[in-house]
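### Sample
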Amino acid sequence: MTNFPRRFAIVLFFFISISSQSRSTRSSTAPHQGHEESAVARTLEEEKGHAHEVHCSRERSRAARKIIEQYLIPFVEKEKHHIPKKCPLHPENDLYRLQEQSKAREDINLWRCGYCKKTFYEEKNLDNHLDEWHFDTLDTSPGRCLADSCGALHCDLVMDSPRKTKCNPAAAARNKHACEVGLFVGYMTVTICTTTSLLDLFLRQFCDAHTCKGGRKPFSRGGKVIYLLEYI
């Protein structure tokens, strides 16, 4: 019995030591774990914030698509030409092409998503839905933003946004150069324009109107309806 106090003291000291080590371990690892969790959370937030960023205007791309379909494609088809895929105006070089084709307008104020069948009262709400929930249907390869061609194609003329009343000579010159050299001529003359008819059409239809001197109007050859009437 004389050894009992000594044994009790040894056991007590043993448990105290284990308890102290346990607390020390928790205190040393907790900040590290918290740091890792915070880092993971920040990474997820960053991925969430950047995953759906697309620097291409859907509205201006829609305007460019409308102009191409109405003021260029009918002439291309009539002359039995084709637009090469490397040309920015080729139908497949459109970031939003598949999403726009999936839309269904069922009434004046009723739009339906072709992917999940949800309905919306306004097209802009459907656009937001597509951006948020169907981002994976976009082809984000380089060179597929039709909005980049809007300066050359006169997109402002078919959009509802207010038009500028004062002509900027420097801007007109830049757009004409982009139209003549960068957009159409540089891609198409060597590849498919065995005659000058299509090239001449494009210059007259789009490029010549980039001037502040007046006299030339965009789409001078008319659009799809006018063009078809000429051949009836």
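Residues 83 and 211 are 26 Å apart (CA to CA). This sample (C2H2-type domain-containing protein) is used throughout the tutorial notebook.
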